[in-house]
Each structure stands twice: as C-alpha cells, then as structure tokens.
C-alpha cells in the first residue's frame, strides 16, 4: 500500500549558471568562431554596440583615468543598475538566447575589404575534372554510364577503389554490359588528364605513364621492365641485383631510375587541392628592449560597450513588457562584455606563461625547446588543467619564428645524462637535423642516431628514435640511401 507524504531533504548540487556557460563557450572558441559569435551578439542584442576608435580616444582624453572596458560598461545605464538582478534564474540556458557559432571565414574588418577576396567557390575535384573530359568525348549512353561509374570509384590519388570484376557485377544489375566494355572505358579514363588515373596499383599507373613517352626515349624499354617486374628491388635500393637483371652496369642504371622518378606515383593528386584555411593569431610575441612581450591581437575582438541611449530607457519599478525586454538585454550585454574581457585576460595570462617557459625556443629554435605540460601552467596560474586545455586549443601565437598553436609548446620529456630533462620536440629537431646532414651514401641508422644523442647527454632508446622518425615521416636508413 502506497502512502503520500511530505519529506524534507538536504542536498547539494552544482549548477552551471548562464554566465558560466557563456564564459566557457567563449574561452574555447577559435578566433574565427569568436568573430561569428560577436557578430551574432551585436545583431541580436540592441544594447550592444562596437565602440569606435575615435570615441575611445575621446573618452580616454576626457576621463584621463584609463577606465577599463568593464568599468566603462558598468557606468553606463546606472539608473537601472540598482533594480536589475545580477543573475538571472539558474535554470535558464544560454542557448535560449544565442545560437552556437558556426565556422565562418572572415575577419573583424570583413566589411572594409573587397568581398570578392572572400568568395570561395567550389574547388574542382578529380572526379569533376575527369567527368568534364568524359562529357567532351563522343560516347553512347551506355558507355557514358559505365565511365561515370568508374570515375566515381576513383580515389583522390587516382586509383580505382574496387576491382573491375566488382564494378562489372554492379553494372550488370541495371545494364547489359560485358566485361570487355568496362575494360575499354577503364582504358579510356586512364588516358585522360592526368595520365594514369583509373589504375589499380602503382605498377599499373607507372606503366601507363611510361607508355606516353616517345618510343625512341633512351632507356624506356629497361624502365618498363623495371617497373613491370622489379619495383620491389627499386624500393629496397638493391642496385646490384637491378643491374644484373636489367643487364646494365650501375652507371647506366642511374638514367633508368631518373626516368622512373620523373613519373607521378599519385596521378590524382595533380588535380584538386584542399581548401585554404586562414589562421589569425590570437597573440603577438615581440622582443622589446631585451625582453619578450606578449600582446593580444587587437583585431580579433572589437571593443564593445552598452549603448548609453538604450540603457537610459530602462526605468525603475517598471514591470511592463517593453521595460523587461530592455532589462534582460542590458543584463545579457553586461554578461557578454564581462565574459569577453575574461576570455582575453585568460588568453593573455596563459600565453605569457608559455613564453616565459619557452624563451630558449624563441631565442635559439626547436632544439632549445623545454619540456612543458598543461599541469605546469595550470599550477603556476592557479587554474584548472581543463581550462588550460580549452585556452590552448585552436589558439595561435605569432612569433618571430612563425605562427604556432599554443599546444605546440607542450611536449613530454626525456631524461639527460646529468639528471636534467629534454623535450620531445627538441629531440625531434635534433633527429631531423642529423638526417638532413647525413651522408646520402651512408645514412644513419636508428641505433647510430641514438648513440649520437647519448654522446650529447640525451638518454633515448633506439625504438624511441624510430617512433619519432616515423612520426616525422622520415624513411628508414635503407630507404634513405640515394640512388642518384
């Protein structure tokens, strides 16, 4: 039997207020996303406006006290401030007021530039390029359908993803086609531009490209033989065995290899390119008077303020719908300005701490990079590690050595002979430098690189060197040995 009754319970729970939700969202936005969010806030909230540079200068000259952005905004609309609650109900959601930002290409001064500069039309893909050539070719409807199916099966490198047999089986459900017809259309596509697209593998793509050379090209027959039957020996740099099988001496082998190296192993890569992504730095790092200084990029966040005219319309003890509308938007405007200022201050503090730790990198380059983890910055600034992670994601720093994401300056460490530490980034730079300076005829093995690093006081295992080398897309020593 169930009984109803009233019971009193005590409990604690954490609630994210709209202000905290907004502050977290602004903190993790990239520069371009922040630009979009600010624009949306300006469009949706009549209380917000951009403070013009002339007005900023005039206000500073009149006040003479250098008020901050938050102080100026708090001083506006003071007649209504006493009656406007500091917090709205905690069960309200920021999503009810502002939509989440969407990626946007552009900058704060977008309207001042030529809009044609920002028109990014659809870039031509490999399939578009091949289809265009197909449309220019006189074919029957059935052959055109077969060729279109083959083009759809070609990946970005120019290779067929499915076998001819599977493509033929798929076409046979709708069309009465023979395997020979599919092969004929494949042959046609392979001779479209770029030559070699539609091949099944590297060997076939290279042979198709070699087939376009004049028959009197020196060493063409030997190059075709090498590609057709001995590509594995070429990959292994086994020049002696190649010379014996091709019946040429090693001096004559060089022009054969040069002919093959002039081919494109990924013919599809010649068409289409990835969309250009623009990076706007969040902070600038400069060396002034012998000291490294960090400054916020003034273009990423325009100075906002509460519109004084609209703020003056808010009346005390007025519960009308219009007045409540103005009160709510005034509160939201103050929240937004305060959250924006908090984001900029946090960004500047984290960037300054990173620069303080990595001054050696700014002075001498990657080999001087110090080991650093998120926890080090979090403890130094008395922030949570998750906050530092948000600040360092998709935020960029412009330095004399280039533009780097904040996360670039964080890396694990390896012990040194004297008990110190060396960052993984510095070790990668040393490996890259050793490989660049090695004798191409006798490249350094991973064991030899580990020995050289040990002689410099850095304790690193051979497998660690191999891991770092592979991470930098550097081939092993047997593949780095130059043949030409």
Protein model, in words:
The chain is built from 23 helices and 8 strands. The chain is an alpha+beta fold. The strands form 3 sheets. A 4-stranded mixed β-sheet has the order 3-2-5-6. β2 and β3 (about 290-295) form a beta hairpin. The protein is extended. Residues about 55-90 and about 95-120 have low confidence and may be disordered.
Number of helices: 23
Main structural class: alpha+beta
Q: What is the beta-strand fraction?
A: 5-15%
User: What multimeric state do the chains show?
Assistant: single chain
List the strand order in the largest sheet. 3-2-5-6
Report the principal-axis shape.
extended
Query: Which consecutive residue ranges, at least 5 long each, have pLDDT under 50?
Result: 56-92, 97-120
Number of separate strands = 8
Distance between the termini: 92 Å
Rg: 32 Å
Short summary of the structure?
This protein is α+β, with helices and mostly antiparallel strands and 484 residues long.
């Amino acid at each position: 039997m169930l009984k109803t009754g009233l019971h009193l319970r005590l409990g604690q729970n954490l609630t994210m207020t709209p202000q905290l939700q907004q502050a977290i969202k602004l903190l993790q936005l990239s520069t371009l996303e922040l630009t979009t969010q600010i624009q949306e806030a300006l469009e949706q909230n009549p209380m917000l406006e951009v403070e013009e540079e002339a007005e900023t200068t005039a206000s500073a000259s009149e006040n003479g006290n250098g008020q901050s952005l938050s102080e100026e905004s708090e001083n506006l609309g003071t007649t209504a401030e006493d009656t406007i609650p500091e917090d709205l109900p905690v069960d309200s959601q920021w999503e009810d007021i502002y939509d989440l930002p969407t990626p946007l290409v552009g900058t704060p001064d977008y309207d001042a530039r030529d809009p044609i500069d920002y028109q990014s039309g659809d870039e031509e893909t490999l399939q578009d390029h091949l289809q265009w050539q197909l449309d220019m070719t006189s074919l029957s409807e059935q052959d055109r359908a077969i060729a279109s199916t083959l083009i759809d099966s070609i990946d970005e490198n120019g290779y067929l993803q499915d076998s001819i047999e599977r493509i033929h089986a798929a076409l046979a459900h709708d069309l009465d086609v023979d395997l020979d017809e599919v092969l004929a259309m494949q042959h046609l596509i392979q001779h479209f531009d770029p030559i070699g697209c539609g091949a099944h593998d590297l060997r076939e793509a290279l042979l198709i490209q070699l087939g376009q050379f004049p028959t009197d090209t020196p060493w063409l027959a030997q190059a075709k033989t090498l590609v057709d039957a001995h590509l594995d020996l070429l990959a292994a740099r086994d020049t002696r065995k190649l010379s014996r099988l091709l019946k040429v001496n090693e001096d004559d082998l060089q022009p054969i290899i040069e002919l093959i190296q002039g081919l494109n192993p990924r013919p599809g890569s010649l068409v289409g390119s990835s969309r250009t992504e623009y990076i706007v730095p969040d902070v600038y790092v400069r060396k002034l008077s012998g000291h490294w200084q960090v400054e916020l990029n003034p273009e990423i966040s325009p100075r906002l303020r509460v519109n004084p005219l609209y703020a003056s319309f808010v009346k005390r003890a007025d519960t009308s719908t219009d007045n409540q509308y103005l009160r709510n938007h005034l509160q939201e405007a103050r929240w937004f300005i305060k959250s924006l200022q908090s984001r900029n201050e946090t960004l500047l503090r984290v960037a300054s701490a990173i620069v303080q730790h990595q001054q050696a990198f700014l002075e001498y380059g990657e080999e001087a990079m110090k080991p650093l983890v998120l926890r080090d910055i979090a403890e130094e600034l008395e922030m949570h590690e998750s906050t530092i992670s948000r600040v360092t994601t998709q935020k960029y720093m412009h330095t004399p050595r280039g533009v780097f994401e904040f996360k670039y300056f964080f890396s694990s460490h390896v012990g040194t002979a004297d008990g110190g530490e060396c960052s993984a980034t510095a070790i990668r730079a040393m490996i890259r430098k050793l490989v660049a300076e090695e004798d191409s005829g006798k490249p350094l093995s991973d064991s030899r690189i580990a020995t050289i690093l040990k002689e410099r006081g850095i304790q690193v295992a051979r497998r660690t060197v191999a891991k770092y080398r592979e991470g930098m897309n550097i081939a092993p020593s047997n593949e780095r040995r130059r043949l030409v």
